[in-house]
Amino acid sequence: MPYVKPNIKENSYGRDLDDRNNVKWSHPELVDWWVAGNADMIDMLCDENVPLEKRRKRLDKLTVSTVDMYKSKGFDPFAGTDSKEEGSNYGCMKEFKIKGCPEAPDDDCTVYVVIPNEKSETPRPAMFYVMGGAFFTHNPGLYNEILRWAKKFNCIMVVPDYRTPLDGTYPSQINDLHAGYQWMVENAEMLNLDPDNVTIFGESTGAHLALSTAFRLKRYGYKPRGCVVNDPMVDDRNYFESSKIIKNPCDATRAHIMFAAYVGWENTGTSYLGPEAFANHASVEECKGLCPIFLNVGESDQDRDATIDFAKKLYEARVPCSLHVWEGAAHATLYYARKTGMAKRFWDNLYGDIQNCMDYDMRRPWAWDK
How far apart are the C-alpha atoms of 318 and 7, rounded to whole Å? Predict the structure, then answer.
C-alpha cells in the first residue's frame, strides 16, 4: 500500500480529534517545551514514494551529523567521555558482532557494552538499554544516559542494536533484541555481569520494543528483574479515547504511519499480531509470568489509555506493576524539560524504579503455580 501523508487531521470527518497542541494543556513548568522536537525527518523516512536508498542515505547523514554534534560537545561513549562529567571515567563502550537468535540464526547482529575501567570482584548488575527514536535514530552516540547510568548504578550497560524499518519489518527488531539478550546471558562471565540481575529499559519506541521483548524473553525462559519504560507505545489499534489526541511532533496520526512502516500496512491497526509486536495485544493469560513492569506515560500522550489498559491486564495477571501517569506532560516532554521541578520528580521516580529492580527481586514465580 502506498504511503499516505498524515492528513488524517484534515479528513477526520468530525471524529472528535482531541487537539492538545495549545500550551494550556501543559503543566505550568513544561510550557516552554510543549512543542519541542521535530518529526519531519521521520515522515520522509516512512514515505514509500521516496526511493529506499535515498531514505537510507538521509538517515545515515542525519545520524552522522547528530553524533558529530554530540562529540563536539564532549560526549563520546566509545571514548568514555561525557560533556557534563556525569558519566566520564567509568568505562568505555565496545562493539560486539554476534549471531542471531534461534528464530533468525543466520542474521548478523550488533551489541554495544560499556566495559567499566575498574574491575569488580563480584558480578555487576546489568541494564539492557533499548534505544528509542521512532524506530530510526538509534545510535549509542546519541544517548548520554548510557554512560551516566552505567556510572550512577555501577552496572554493565548492554545496548543492543536493531534494524530500522528500512532494513526489515517486524519481527526483525525483536529478533535482534532477543539475540542481544541471549548473547549477554551466554557471555555473562566474560562481561562480569549477573545474568539474574538484569533490568530492561526503554523510552518511546525503545519502551515499545522493550515491553515486546519482555514477552519474547518469557517465551524462551529468560527472567529479567524488571522492565522500566517511559512513554511506551503498546497498541496500534487506535480505539482508545487518548488515540484521538493530536499533538506535534508525536501523536496518534504520526504513530500510525510509523507502525505501518514497522509491521506493514496490511497488519497495522489489526488484532492479528501478538504481544511480541505490541504489548497490549496480550491477553491476561499471556501476561502471566512476565517480569515486574514499571510504566510511565504522559497525560497527553496518545498511548495513555492503552498503557493504562495494559497495566490493568498486568494487575489481573498478578504481575508486579507500577503505573505513573504524569499530569500535564505529553510524549517525551519530560526528557526535554530536564531542569524543571516537574522533570526532577519524573527522573527521581525513574531512577528509583531502576534501582528498585537492581536491589530487590520482585519476581513472583509462585504467583502462577497451579
Answer: 41
- Give the model's confidence band at 1: pLDDT under 50 very low, under 70 low, under 90 confident, else very high: very low
- The candidate with the shortest Cα–Cα distance to 158, out of 94, 98, 63, is 94
- In the predicted model, what is the mean pLDDT of the chain? 92
In this predicted structure, the answer to whether residue 95 has a pLDDT above a threshold of 60 is yes
Average pLDDT of the segment spanning 156-160: 98
Residue 315 DSSP SS3: helix
d(CA 266, CA 245): 24
The Cα 77–Cα 143 span in angstroms is 9
**Cell numbers at 142, concatenated:** 546519541
Helix/strand/coil for 194: strand
The Cα–Cα gap between 75 and 85 comes to 9
Cβ count within 10 A of residue 6: 18
Domain boundaries, the chain: 31-360
Residue entry with cell 508486579: 320
Q: How many residues does the chain have?
A: 370
pLDDT at 38 over 80: no
CA 53 to chain centre: 26
- Per CATH, the number for 31-360 is 3.40.50.1820
Residue with cell 510550557: 31
Separation CA 75–CA 117 (nearest Å): 17
pTM equals 0.94
Q: What is the pLDDT of residues 339-349, one digit of tens each?
A: 999 999 999 99
Rounded percentage of the chain residues whose pLDDT exceeds 90: 76
Distance CA 112, CA 101 (A): 16
